[in-house]
């Protein structure tokens, strides 16, 4: 389980997160929703260790990881798929996948076959440069690269952004499959309400750096959530 408690984060004098709490359990998808600029990406970056926090704690698998460097968190099974994918455009698909080796012991430095079962298009494109792939293919590559690290906590920042509908359905199916295995906690940042609603086991809604709604999917009142998503 991931337990985030009282998280505060600043960019200079601007406070991006205000006493944010979040829980994510293995076998479940926790969806973080809200308008642009409310702190969703800052929250994921804080959990991944890419942004330092001013207060609060993050406990993962009963260990306090609040002050750990990003590479130490990756070694503990925390993987981050950032908004915009951030693949290496001049590296091949195969080389992009191999960058995930840095977070795992030498004995695990290979691409598991089940990744190609989840993303069959990648097997046919191993020699192509990442920058030559479509947006949807790049998103699949970014998720696959994270899975190479054998994560137990997967952080996904708006995986549907700029993606064609057919690929969105594929990504939804893959996220649900990964959660159903029961070995991975998934935190999904999303603005597309229907996508988040269909996947969520639990939800967190943010506004101006704060959590304004949270709970289990069965407790979600759609009208209340949508009120914080519309401009």
Structure characteristics:
231 residues; alpha/beta; Rossmann fold; six-stranded mixed beta sheet; four-stranded antiparallel beta sheet; 9 helices; globular
Mind explaining what this structure looks like?
The model has no long low-confidence stretch (mean pLDDT 95). The protein starts with a strand and ends with a helix. Helix 7 links the parallel strand 7 and strand 8. The protein has 231 residues and is α/β, with parallel strands linked by helices. It is built from nine helices and ten strands. The radius of gyration is 17 Å and the shape is globular. The chain has helices spanning 40-48, 70-75, 93-98, 113-118, 120-123, 135-148, 165-180, 193-199, 222-227; strands at residues 2-11, 14-24, 29-33, 55-60, 63-64, 78-81, 153-157, 185-189, 202-207, 210-216. It has one domain (2-86, 151-227): P-loop containing nucleotide triphosphate hydrolases (Rossmann fold).
């Amino acid at each position: 389980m991931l337990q985030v408690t009282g998280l505060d984060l600043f960019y200079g004098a601007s406070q991006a997160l205000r006493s944010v709490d979040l829980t994510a359990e293995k076998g479940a998808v926790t969806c973080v929703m809200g308008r642009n600029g409310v702190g969703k990406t800052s929250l994921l970056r804080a959990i991944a260790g890419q942004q330092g926090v001013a207060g609060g704690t993050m406990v993962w698998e009963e260990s306090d990881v609040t002050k750990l460097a990003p590479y130490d968190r990756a070694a503990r099974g925390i993987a981050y798929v950032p908004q915009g994918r951030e693949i290496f455009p001049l590296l091949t698909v195969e080389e992009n996948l191999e960058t995930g080796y840095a977070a795992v012991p030498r004995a695990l430095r290979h691409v598991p076959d089940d990744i190609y079962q989840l993303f069959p298009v990648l097997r046919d494109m191993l020699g192509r440069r990442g920058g030559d792939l479509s947006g949807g293919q790049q998103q699949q590559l970014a998720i696959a690269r994270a899975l190479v690290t054998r994560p137990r906590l997967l952080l996904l920042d708006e995986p549907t952004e700029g993606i064609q509908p057919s690929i969105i359905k594929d990504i939804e199916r893959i996220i649900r499959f990964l959660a159903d295995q029961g070995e991975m906690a998934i935190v999904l940042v999303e603005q597309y309400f229907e996508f988040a609603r269909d996947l969520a086991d639990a939800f967190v809604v943010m506004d101006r750096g704060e959590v304004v709604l949270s709970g289990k999917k069965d407790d979600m009142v759609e009208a209340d959530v949508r009120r914080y998503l519309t401009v």
